[in-house]
Amino acid sequence: MGEIPLDILALQILTGIALGCIFVLVATGLTLIFGLLNVVNFAHGAFYAAGAYLGVFAFGYTGSFWLSLFIVPLGMAAVGMVTERVLLRPIYGRGMSYPLLLTFGVGYVLVELIRILFGTDGLPFSSPPELRGSILLGDIAFPLYRLFVMAFTAALLTSLWFLIEKTPFGLIIRAGARDAEIVKVLGIDTSKVWLLIFALGTAVAGIAGFLAAPMRGVIPEMGVTVLIEAFVITVVGGMGSLPGAVIAGLLLGIVVSLTSYFAADFSNIVMFAIMAIVLLVRPQGLLGRPEAAR
Amino acid sequence: MQSSRRPISSLSRRAALKFLGAGVVVGACWSRSAAQGAGGLIKVGFPVPLSGPYGSEAADQVRCAQLAVEDFNKSGGLNGRMAELLVRDDKLNPAEAVTRTLELVEKERVDLIVGSLSGAIQLAVNETCKARGMTYNALGVSDRLNEASDFGPTTYHEGLAPYFSVGALGRYVFSKLGNRVAYLIADYEFGYEMRRAFQVVGERMGVQVVAEVKHPLGMQDFSSLFPRILSAKPDILCVLNFGRDQLNALKQASEFGLKDRMKILVGALSSNQRIAGGAEAYTDVVGASNYYWKAEEMFASSKAFNAAYAAKYKGGIPSDYGSYGYGGVRSMLELARKAGSVDPVALSAAVGSGFNFDLYKGPQMIRACDHQSVQAVFVLRSKGPSEMKSPNDAFEVLEVAPPDDTKLRSCAELGLKT
C-alpha cells in the first residue's frame, strides 16, 4: 500500500469521525432505550428511516431545513410515545423476547407504511444551501455539511449528558436504570419516565435519519444496515452505556475509515471482528456493567 | 291442481336457474378459451428484484414488460394465443430468485422466463432454467452468461454485454479524458464483469490503472473510500456499481470534490437514480446506457414505444433498465411468433442465422451462436441543472454505437460452437 500522505491521513480520520457521528447518533437512541427499559429495540432502524421521511416531508411543506430539523424530533417523539404506550407497556415484565419480537414487527410495519405512503423509489434530498460546498484542508476538500453533522452531534450529546447527569429528571433516569423497583417505591411514576425515554430514543433516531438523508439518500430500507451498525456499537460500547456508545461509535468510524484506505476489502467486516474480540475479552463491552453481559 | 303444479313450477325455476348458471360458466370458459387461442395463454414468468437497492429499476421493468405483453396481444398474439405476465420479486437474492423461478416453472407452468437484472442472480436463474429446459431471457448486463460454462441452448440475453457497452464507452472516453484510471468496484459479479470489460478496452487504449477500490453491495457511505482514490491522482474514476449504490457514490463524490479533480465514468448509467438523486450528483458524469428516450429522434420504433408508455403510464418516459423489460419480453414473444410455438427447440431453431427485429430502439438482432441481443449502445453525459430544458432532459447523447456483432467477443472466444 505504501506510505499515506499526511493530508490524506487527516482526511481519512476526519471522514471516520463524521462516519462515527452517524453511528453514535443511532446507537445513542438504542442504548438509551436498552439502558432504562431493557428493551432491545429492533424498530430503531425503521425509526431512523421514518425520521428521514418525516424530515423530507416537512421540508416539502416548510421549505426550511432548520424548521424540519425541529419538527423531526417532535414528530418522532410522538411516534415513540404511541409505540411505548400502546404496544410495549402491556408486555413489560414478560421477558426480553416479547418486546424484541414486537419491535421487530413494528419495524416491518413502519417500513411498509413508508413504502405505501412515499413509494419504493426513494426521494431526492440535498443539504441546505448554506451548508453546501466544502472547506479546504491543505489540498483536500471536506464537505461543510459533514462538519455540521459533527458539530450537531457534539451539541446533542452534550445536551443529553447535561439532561442525564445534571437535572432531577436525569437523576430519576439514572436511578431507574439501576433499580426501577426502588424508584417506584419512592413514589415516582416510572411509567412516565419510561415513556419519555422511549420518546427521546426515538427522536434521536429520527434526527440521525434526517441528518444522514442529504449524504446517504432517502429510501425505505435505509435503516436496515444502520440498525446492524448500531447494535455492533452498542455491544462494543457496552449495552446501556451512553459514554460507551459515543466512544465505540467514534472509534469504529475511524477504524472503518482507516481500514478502507489500507485494506478496503476488509472495511465491511472490521467492525464485526472488533465486536467479536470485545465479546471474547470483555463481554460487557468497553464501558458496560458486568451484569448487563449476563 | 295448484299443489300439483307448484313442484313443476318450482322445478322449472330451478332448472332454469341451473341452465342459466351452466350457460354463464360455459360462456366464460368459451370466452377465456377464445382469448387463449388453441394452446392456452402464453405464460411469461418475470422474476425481478422489486425490493432492495434495484427496486425502482425493477418496477419500471414490470411496467415495460406489461406494455410488451399488451402490444403483442394487440397485434394478434401467436395465432390467437394471448400472452400473460406473471411477476415475482426475487428480492435481489439468488436463493429467492431460484425459489421464485421454480415456482413459476413447476407451479405456474410458464412457457418462458424473462427477468433478473443482477449478474449473479441471472446466472443462478439461468442454471435453474437450463436444468429444466426452460427458455430464459436474462435482462442484466453480463459477459459471463454467454460463455460456454454458463450458456445453454435455452439461454437468451437481452442485457448488454459489458465487453461491447464498456468497450464503446472506453473507446469514446479514454482517448479524450486521460489515461490514469481508478476503479470503484461493486464487490460482486456485476462489478467484476464491468472491471474485466474496462481492462480489455483500457489495455487497448493504453490506460494506466492507479487504484482499485472495492465496496460491498448496498453500501451507504462511500466517503471513507475517497481519500485513497484522491491520493492516487487519477484523471478518470470509473464507478462500476449500479442502482442506489451508484447514486450514493456519485452524490458523495460530488460532496468531496472528486468531480473537480477527475472525470467520472459509470459503466451502466441508471436514469432512475439520476432522477431520484437529482441532477447535481450526476452532473457531467459520462456513462453507457442501453436506452435513452431521445432515441425517438433517431428511430420510429422508439417514438412509438415512448408514446405507448406515456399513454399507459400517464405521461412518463421509459427508463433505460425499464426498456430491457420491454425488449426482453417482446423479442421472445416475436421469436415465438416466428417459430409458431413457444417450444424451446422451436425457438432456438427460429433464431436461424440471426433473428433481426426493430421493436423499440432501432435495429436489433439475436445472434445465433450465443443468443446475445446485439443492439445499440448510447454514450451519455449527464446534464447539470442549468442545462436541462425539462425534467426529462437529463442527458446529452455523445455517441450512439450501432449494433455490431464484430465488436462483441466471437462465439469461438466464448468457447461456443459457431
Key attributes of the depicted protein:
heterodimer; A: 294 residues; ABC transporter involved in vitamin B12 uptake, BtuC; two-stranded antiparallel ribbon; 2 strands; B: 418 residues; alpha/beta; Rossmann fold; 2 domains; five-stranded parallel β-sheet; 46% helix
Would you list the SSEs of chain A in sequence order as H and E? Answer: HHHHEEHHHHHHH
- Might you state the CATH topology name of the largest domain in chain B? Rossmann fold
* Strand arrangement across the biggest beta sheet of chain A: 1-2
What structural category characterises the helix and strand content of chain A? mainly alpha
Largest sheet of chain B: 7 strands, mixed
The biggest beta sheet of chain A reads:
2 strands, antiparallel
Write down the overall mean pLDDT of chain A. 89
Helix content of chain A: over 70%
Kindly identify the CATH topology of chain A: ABC transporter involved in vitamin B12 uptake, BtuC
Multimer state: heterodimer
Number of strands of chain A: 2
Order of helices and strands of chain B: HEHEHEHEEHEHEHEHHEHHEHHHEEEEE
Shape of chain B: globular
